Amino acid sequence: MRAAVYEGRGASDVLQVKEVPTPGPGVGEVRLRLHVAAVNPTDWKARKSGGDLDADFQIPGQDGAGVIEAVGPGVDLGRIGERAWVYHAAYRRPFGTAAQYTVVPARQAVRIPEGTGFDQAAALGIPYITAYGCLLSDGPIDGQTILVHGGAGAVGHAAIQLARRAGAHVITTVSSKAKAAIATSAGAHVIVDYTQKSALEQVAAAARAGVDRIIEVDLTHNLELDRAVIVPHGVIVTYAADADDPTVPVRALMNGNVTLRFVMVYGFTPSTIAAAIDDITRGLVDGDLTPLPVIRFSLSTRSPRPMTRWRSAPPARC
Length: 318
Prior knowledge:
Elements lengths: L1 E4 L10 E4 L9 E10 L2 H8 L14 E9 L11 E4 L14 E5 L3 E3 L6 H5 L2 H12 L8 E5 L4 H12 L3 E6 L2 H10 L3 E4 L5 H8 L4 E6 L2 H11 E9 L11 H6 L3 E4 L7 H17 L28 E3 L1
Parallel strand pairs: 8-9, 8-11, 9-10, 11-12, 12-13
Antiparallel strand pairs: 1-2, 3-4, 3-6, 3-14, 4-5, 5-7
């Protein structure tokens, strides 16, 4: 099969498109012929850092969508021909989704509901599971006010939609009119341009009783605003890390009994992932989830380097 691979960690020039053996499904696994793969920041971060590879090569790509064409022992033969989206395909495994085929444990191939296309399904995994865990791992948020930073990014966009479905009042921050349009289509109640000097005042005005939960993409730069609007016993959840760690005002957060939580989607419990998949599936069926704009790249023999530049998980055709 054709795949984008790297045989050692480094910058984008370590990527190459080449022929590699098509993997076969083992016990409890399925093989998909991929129609679309999605690009996430985690892909290039994993490629650039870390020690030696666990295999001779690594195919990047955690998320994708396609059709199950083979199953291993212990998997229902009836799944052959099923349209499915996959998550965590390259996590501690060499066969990611930047290829014509991938093999994953059967539970990591999720049936795509009727009416949902491959483009949208391919970009569900990392963004939507992350957003669900940030929002709902502590319990219901119905009636709460949620602040989602970066509402036009993949996780932020997903968080807006899942928070609306859960009954929350959603405020989001963006940096341009184009991104505001994306956040509006996702269903945000209030949109604030964080580049404006009045951003803090705008958030405070939109949440007069304070913000109950903040979904944070840039804790280093947003912590002052977050502290100003979070309610006592509120929760700040950060799913991204900058090169520079923030200075955490411990006493101020303690005084408000504020919870500062750090999450990594790969460490979510099976029950959280299962609950996320259930909510995502119901959201698709209900028509509550809308995709981000698509930027498409072909898996051809030319260098796939442009795929590494996008921050918000646009799909790429295999």
